[in-house]
């Protein structure tokens, strides 16, 4: 029969381990991507002990059960959707700010220079023999030419920056997909684990959040910890990650505009579109090359 000392010893040991889990949560309160761990305390019944020495009528106290990870699939999916929408709005605001600075410079716009030029011509028409007014009219024409040239260079630079950012974003998206594939292989036991199971799941969710910032994704969570990641609402556009394989996103620019594709492991590409996230904003604001 389990005596009072055995029950007390089991209780102290269980709550000691539970406090260690609490300490782990406190220590990682500022760790990015860390999810809280919860400890379950379970009764240690005599049915699981040696029946020759323990009576069935008494227990042995408690023990620490499974350590679970605070995770809500529904909230995580909503977070990914909200992150994608916010990233789209933020990127659009930044690009429009740059466009506004180009179209409306602090000095003077093209419209201002044109008004000044036509005002100069109007004054010259009233007194054609005035050499001073002639010089002012020529100066106004040069100012219009310089303003239009500056606007052209500004728009060209903005287009170049947008295309460069798009290429970097696609590379970052594919790199994140690759990292997620490696983590998934570890979770599924296809490769040597580089961390604890809960830590791998934290890394998985962090990478999913990074993907949702770039594009609108749909995630199907599986009981074994793996995920299937698709592009678009309800995964209607195309599969990005399934099992141990992932498909890269590619971008092609031509005179008709910028197009995006998903390329599978066999090199077959299929056209896709983005409806949210940073990628969608960059595609919508990327003019075709001239």
Task: Give a written overview of the molecule.
The protein is elongated, with a radius of gyration of 32 Å. The N and C termini lie far apart (88 Å). It has 290 residues and is of the alpha+beta class. The chain has six helices and nine strands, in the order αββααααβββββββα. The strands form three sheets. Strands 3-4-5-6 form a four-stranded antiparallel sheet. α2 runs parallel beside α5, α3 runs antiparallel to α4 and α4 runs antiparallel to α5 (197-214).
Offer a concise description of the structure:
Helix content is 53%, strand content 17%. It is an alpha+beta fold. Strands 3-4-5-6 form a four-stranded antiparallel sheet. Strands 7-8-9 form a three-stranded antiparallel sheet. A two-stranded antiparallel sheet has the order 1-2.
Topology overview:
Layout: H1 4-27, E1 37-43, E2 62-69, H2 73-103, H3 110-126, H4 131-187, H5 197-214, E3 217-221, E4 227-231, E5 238-242, E6 245-246, E7 248-254, E8 257-263, E9 269-272, H6 277-284
C-alpha geometry: elongated
Question: What is the overall number of helices?
Answer: 6
Helical residue percent?
40-55%
* H-E string: HEEHHHHEEEEEEEH
Terminal-residue CA separation: 88 Å
Q: How are the strands of the largest sheet arranged?
A: 3-4-5-6
Number of strands: 9
Query: What is the strand content?
Result: 15-25%
Global Rg? 32 Å
Given helix and strand content, the structural type is alpha+beta
Mean pLDDT over the full residue set: 85
Task: Give the uncertain stretches in residue-range form.
Answer: 50-56
Main sheet: strands, sense, barrel: 4 strands, antiparallel
